[in-house]
Design a protein that fits this description.
The chain is an alpha/beta fold. It is built from 9 helices and 22 strands. A 6-stranded mixed sheet has the order 6-7-8-4-9-10, sandwiched between helices. Helix 4 crosses helix 5 and helix 5 packs parallel to helix 6. The longest helix is centred in the middle third of the chain and has 18 residues. The radius of gyration is 25 Å and the shape is globular.
Length: about 425
């Protein structure tokens, strides 16, 4: 049995959300046809062991395989808590929020919710594309059970917060993604609800709007006692807003606790996976690019470096077509995955032939980075990609190991972080 119950099942204390043995299973290859007639037709033929006439996905997987997006999750969230839900892509974060938002039904388990839920999950969810911004505000308020006069009282505040008053009477299908998210968040935050749920969509907005949105969610929680669930890969934003945290991993709730403890565990899991996954830079599945040029290997001379030591990184590459000029960029980020500095080199200035392969070494001068862990971003590209749309390129980001700088006792610690210096040589 599986269920989602509103204002039921929560008997004690100030619990806003209670989840018991929650699981969600997806069949790979199984999709709805869009019409009842075709769904019944598919069911009829499958019952007789025949091929589904409406299948749009490879028959070898249709209905045969599946995976647990969530598996046996239990937790309680108290009223007024601000919970950050973190984890790698595919960990089950969005699936969990969709079920709490009653967009998706659980396969097993129960969800008890006390109060009204307003959610902002994916760009496009919850708005009618043909209606204007103003009409969508009324529609969302009606869904939450508000009367027109109640929405009227909130209207000016919602429009002012969104910052799109000039376009409020334009159909939302004409909005940019940034305008859409501004209005969607303003609606979710200002209409009467007890639980506010937001997914990664806030990343669409600019930095000013993100600060404004985080401030509003903090105000709603601390001032009005509203419960907030927040999913983001931006650990700075998570720590700024939330006081509690959940760490999701492969569909399970791996850890819960104070937000700083959870974000540190999340970053530690990333650092561990970088070390384990160094060999997969050879795997086509973990890179972005058009295949014209690829990294074939990346390695560090050590697992960790002292603050005053030179950092040596070796990498190899190959090409599968000819193009003009081959360049490489190494970007250094902070543990929050925010850009700090970069090194850029011309590897081959002329025509690079098809089948070209070579190995290089970058040496970053000691004393230019503070102790810490630094995710790295490796980029290869042709000359055209430097100033225009990327044509022939390859990117490795989350699949490479952190650069680890340690603070050794008695060693000199650099006073600045932005003096990144290095040299390149062919080996």
């Amino acid at each position: 049995m599986a269920s989602i119950a509103l204002d039921a099942g929560i008997k004690v204390g100030n619990v806003a959300i209670k989840v018991e043995h929650l699981s969600k299973y997806y069949d790979l290859g199984v999709i709805g046809s869009g019409t009842l007639r075709k769904d019944l037709q598919s069911w009829f033929w499958k019952r007789r062991g025949r091929e589904d006439p409406n299948s749009r996905i490879g028959a070898e997987n249709s209905g045969a395989d599946g995976f647990w997006a969530l598996k046996d999750i239990d937790f309680e969230i108290q009223q007024g808590e601000r919970v950050g839900i973190v984890g790698k892509n595919g960990a089950g974060k969005s699936t969990l929020l969709k079920m709490i938002s009653q967009i998706s039904a659980p396969t097993k388990g129960n969800i008890y919710i006390k109060g009204k839920v307003a959610s902002l999950l994916e760009v496009g969810t919850g708005f009618n594309q043909e209606l204007t911004g103003r009409e969508n505000i009324y529609m969302n308020g009606a869904i939450l059970g508000m009367k027109k006069r109640e929405i009227d009282r909130k209207m000016d505040e919602i429009i002012d917060f969104s910052g799109i008053e000039k376009h409020i009477d334009t159909p939302v299908k004409r909005y940019s993604s940034g305008m859409y998210v501004r209005l969607a968040f303003a609606v979710a935050a200002h209409l009467d609800s007890d639980i506010l749920i937001t997914d990664e969509v806030l990343a669409v907005g600019d930095a000013e709007f993100q600060r404004k949105a985080l401030g509003k969610m903090t105000e709603l929680s601390t001032g009005e006692g509203r419960t907030v669930l927040f999913v983001s890969h931006n650990m700075s934003a998570v720590e700024m807003l939330c006081n509690k945290g959940f760490l999701m991993d492969h569909g399970k709730l791996a850890s819960r606790g104070e937000i700083h403890e959870i974000t540190e565990k999340y970053l530690q899991s990333y650092r561990a996976s970088y070390r384990q996954d160094i060999a997969v830079v050879r795997d086509e599945a973990v890179r972005r690019g058009n295949g014209a040029v690829d990294f074939t290997d990346i390695s560090f001379s050590k697992d960790a470096y002292g603050a005053d030591e030179d950092i040596v990184i070796d990498f190899s590459l190959k090409t599968s077509k000819s193009f003009q000029g081959l360049y490489m960029s190494l970007d250094v980020k902070n543990p929050r995955r925010e850009f700090i500095s970069s090194l850029r080199y011309c590897l081959e200035p002329g025509i690079v032939p098809e089948g070209f392969s070579a190995s290089y070494r970058i040496t970053i001068s000691g004393g230019t980075l503070l102790p810490g862990n630094y995710p790295l971003y490796f980029w290869l590209g042709d000359e055209m990609s430097l100033s225009g749309p990327a044509m022939n390129y390859c990117v490795l980001d989350e699949y490479t190991p952190d650069l680890v700088i340690t603070a050794e006792e008695g060693a000199a610690v650099p006073a600045a972080l932005f003096r990144l210096q290095g040299r390149l040589e062919k080996v």
